[in-house]
Specification:
- This protein has 21 helices and 25 strands.
- The protein has 600 residues and is α/β, with parallel strands linked by helices.
- It folds into three domains: 257 residues, Aminohydrolase, N-terminal nucleophile (Ntn) domain (Glutamine Phosphoribosylpyrophosphate, subunit 1, domain 1); 170 residues, Rossmann fold; 158 residues, Glucose-6-phosphate isomerase like protein, domain 1 (Rossmann fold), CATH 3.40.50.
- An eight-stranded antiparallel sheet has the order 3-2-4-1-10-9-11-15. It has a seven-stranded antiparallel sheet with strand order 5-6-7-8-12-13-14. A five-stranded parallel sheet has the order 17-16-18-19-20, sandwiched between helices.
- It is globular.
- The protein starts with a strand and ends in an 18-residue tail after the last helix.
- It binds 5-amino-5-deoxy-1-O-phosphono-D-mannitol (M6R).
- 5-amino-5-deoxy-1-O-phosphono-D-mannitol binds next to helix 11 and helix 18.
Amino acid sequence: MCGIVGYTGKRSAAPVIVEGLKCLEYRGYDSFGLAVTDCESAAKSDAGGLAVIKKQGRISDAGRDVTLLNGNTGIGHTRWATHGVPSDVNAHPHTDCTGDIAVIHNGIIENYAELKRSLIAEGHTFKSETDTEVIAHLLEKFCNAADADGLIGEERIDFAVKSLMETLEGSFALLILIRGFSGLIAIKRFSPLVLGIGDEELFASSDMTPILEHTQKILFLEDDDYAYLMPEGIRVFSYPSGDAVEREVKTVDWDVESAKKGGYDFFMEKEIFEQPAVFVNSFRQSIDDKAVSVLKKASSITVVACGSSYHAGLVFRYLAEKYCKIPVRVEIASEFLNFAIAKGTAVIAVTQSGETADTLAALRHAKASGCPVFAVTNVLGSSVTRIADHVLYTRAGPEISVAATKSFIAQCAVLMRIVSVLGKGIFEKELFEIYPVLEETLLFDPAGASAVCKDAENIFYVGRGVYYPISLEGALKMKEITYIHAEGCAAGELKHGPFSLLTPETPVIAVCTKDASYPVMISNIKEMKARGAPVIAIGSAGDKDLKEIADIFIPLPKSENICEVISATIILQMIACNTAVLLGRDVDKPRNLAKSVTVI
Ligand code: M6R
C-alpha cells in the first residue's frame, strides 16, 4: 500500500505534491519520490524532459530541494515496500531506459517477473527490484511500437495505455508522465485513485485528503478507467473499449482532519473497509517454487504465532489438514520452546509486524533445530525476514489501529494461498472472485448486535471446525477494544464447563454456516437457548431455520463456503468496533496494549 499524488495546473507542482504526500504517509513512509515536468514547454519544444528526485526516508524529512523542482505538472509517491527493500533506487518514480517516462504505482503487478524476464531479453536494463519498473519499460516498448506505426499525439498515448492495461495482471493505481504529452495519465484497476477538479488545476491522489485542501470537487474513477488530466480538463476512458465515459463529479464537504481517516472516525473502521482489496492482493500472489517444494517435502508443518496471528495459523490448520491432508500443529509462540519438534517439520512464523519477540524466539529455535523456516509477515525487511529461509508477504499495507483486522485477513489470504497451492488449486476460483462478496459484507449494519453486546459483562463466541478459530478471533477483537470479557469456545466444549456461565445476560455469538458442522451446530445453539442465553447467529444467506432459532440472525452474502469464513470474520470485527464506539472506548489505542510486542 503506497500513497500517490499528481498535480497539473498553473502553480509549481512540487510543493503541492510534497504537502499532499504528507497526508498520505499513513499509507507508507519508507521512501518517497517526485517527477516533475513543465508540460507546456516540453510539448512545444520536445525538449526538457523529466526531473526526478527519489530517496529512502520520509517525505516529512525531505529537504527544501524537493520543493524547488521546476515544472507545473508532476507526480509523487510515498512507499510501503512490497518488492525490494526500502532504498533510493527502489523508491518511485520509476523510469524507462530513456528517462522520458516516469511512473508511480500503488498495488501489485502479479505477472511482473515474467514481464521483466522478457523485457530484459528484449534489451531493457532494469535499475530496481520493484514490480513497478516493468510498467515504465512496457510503456517505452509500446510507445516505440506506436511510433513505428506512425501514431502521433493522443493516438500514440492511447495505444500505449491500452496495450499496458492488456498486459498487466494485478492491481494498480498509476500516475504517469510521458515526455511530449502535455498532461498527466491516470489509470485505475483494483487500487484506489480519485481525481480533484480545481480552478484551472487538476489533482490525483490515493484518497481525497490531499485534494480537499484545494478543491471539494472529486471525481471517482472506476476500475479499468484511464484518464488524461490536461490543461483543458479531465477526460476519462474505459478499458478495453477505449470509449470516453462520464464519471460523476461529487462535491465533498469533509473537513481535512476527518479525510485523513478517509471519512471514518477511527483507523480500525477504515482498515476494516480496506479488506476486500487487501484480501485479493494478498491471495493473488504466486509462491516461490522453492518454497512450495520445501513445504511439499515436509512431513508436517508447525505454525508459531501470537494473538490474532495465532488464530490465522489455526484457520490454516483446519484447511490444510482437511484439504491437503498435511499434519499441522499451531503453537502459541511463547510456549513453543517447551515442545519437541518432529523430524521433517517445516515451521512457519506468522507475524504482522515481523518483530514480535516471542515469535522471533520460536522461529530461531526452529531454525537452530534444523527445520526449514518460513515467515508470513506484513513488513518488508522486518526481523523475521532475516531469520526465515522463505518469506511470504501479506499485502495489508500499514495497519495503524492496535487491533489487527486487515492484517489478519491478509494472513488468512496468504495461508489460504498455501493451501490452494498444496491442494492442487483448491479454492483458487472461489477466492479469486471474492472481492464483490466482501464489498457486500461491508454493507452490514452492526447496530442491532452491538446494542445487545454493549450491556453484557461476558460474551461467548462459538463455532465448529474453521469457525472455532474465527470465534477466538471475534472474541479477541471484542475484549481488546471494548474491555468486555469475551471468550471464544469450540461449540462442542460449552457443555463441558462454560454452560454454567450462561444466563439471559450472557449473549452467545454463534457462527453457523451451512457447512459439514451445520446440523450439530444447530443442536448446540438450541442447547444454549434452552439455558436462556440470547443468541446472535451468523449464518448462510436464506437460512430460515437459523433465523427462527436465533434472537438476532445475521445472514452472510450468498457465496461459497470458503468465502463465508472471511465474511464472517469481517462481521465479527464490525460488531466489536461498533460496540467499542457505543461504549466510548479509544478504539484505535485500547488501554494497556501496543501494536508491536517486542519484549518476551
Ligand atoms: O505483529 P504480530 O502479528 O506478531 O502480533 C501478534 C499479536 O500481538 C497481535 O496479533 C495482537 O493479538 C493483535 N493486535 C490483536 O488484535
